[in-house]
Every structure is written in C-alpha cells, then in structure tokens.
C-alpha cells in the first residue's frame, strides 16, 4: 500500500499555500486491478476470452506523461481521440465509466478507456504479447 504524508502546496510561482496530506499510490497494484477489470469487460463485450498469447497494457496520466512526446501524440491520435467519440457506459453517478473499441481486423485487439470517480482515467490496450524479437522489430510497441 501507499503511504500518507504531509506535503507543501505551492503556486507555480512558488507562493506557499499551506500543507495537505498526500497519498503515495502504487500504480502497478492499481494497474493489476484495471487489467482484471478489462479482462472481465472484454469477455462481457466480446463474448469470448482474451487469447492466452495476448496481454493487456495499462497506462495512467502519470505513465503517459513520462512517454516521449511523439509516442504521446501517437497514443492520443490512435487510441484516446477515437475512444472519446464513443458514448461511455456509466455506472453509479459516474463512479465508474468505460468506453471501448475492437479492431475490425482482429477481434482480440482492443482499446479501452476506464474512468473512476469521474476524473481518474486509465487507458488499456489488448494485443499480442511483446517478445524481445517483436520489440526489436518495432520498439514503439506497445503503447
């Protein structure tokens, strides 16, 4: 689990605004939960299991922010923007929502946008497992 600790809040100009409690999140643990949710949603929406030789890759705002600018632009153009045009399934007064799209060419290739509490987004992509050989052939994959 993460740890709660006090932090100083400052404006971009450095003006001290006070102290607040901050919670350190272990993203890999949360990513595992999102992976399990996408696995279940994949089965629910596609009516079939995700192939054993396919993986689910999850990203948050934080991990996208750490990507090179050109990869961020590709992710936005190829996944985030198309998903934004799809009406979401919303549950519990926006407690959870999701959007998805399956590839026309491969029913196991899909993209997912999951949002928790109206403002905590995650992106997930299902696709073939990345091997060292496939990574060498295309180092930009997977998103």
Order of helices and strands: EEHEHHEEEEH
Shape: globular
CA-atom Rg in angstroms: 18 Å
* Spatial order of strands in the largest sheet: 3-7-6-5-4
* Class based on secondary structure composition and strand pairing: alpha+beta
For the sheet with most strands, the description reads: 5 strands, antiparallel
Percent of residues in helical segments?
25-40%
What is the average of the pLDDT values?
A: 89
How many structural domains in the coordinates?
1
Q: Determine the N-to-C terminus distance.
A: 26 Å
Count, helices:
4
Number of DSSP strands? Answer: 7
What proportion strand? 25-35%
Q: Regions with pLDDT < 50 over 5+ consecutive residues?
A: none
Question: What order do the helices and strands come in, and which of them pair?
Answer:
Elements: E1 4-10, E2 16-23, H1 27-46, E3 54-60, H2 61-65, H3 69-84, E4 89-91, E5 96-102, E6 110-116, E7 120-128, H4 132-137
Antiparallel strand pairs: 1-2, 3-7, 4-5, 5-6, 6-7
Give an overview in words.
The chain has one domain. The radius of gyration is 18 Å and the shape is globular. It has 143 residues and is α+β, with helices and mostly antiparallel strands. It has four helices and seven strands; from the N terminus they run ββαβααββββα.
Features:
about 140 residues; alpha+beta; two-stranded antiparallel sheet; 4 helices; globular
TL;DR of this structure?
With 143 residues, the protein is an alpha+beta fold.
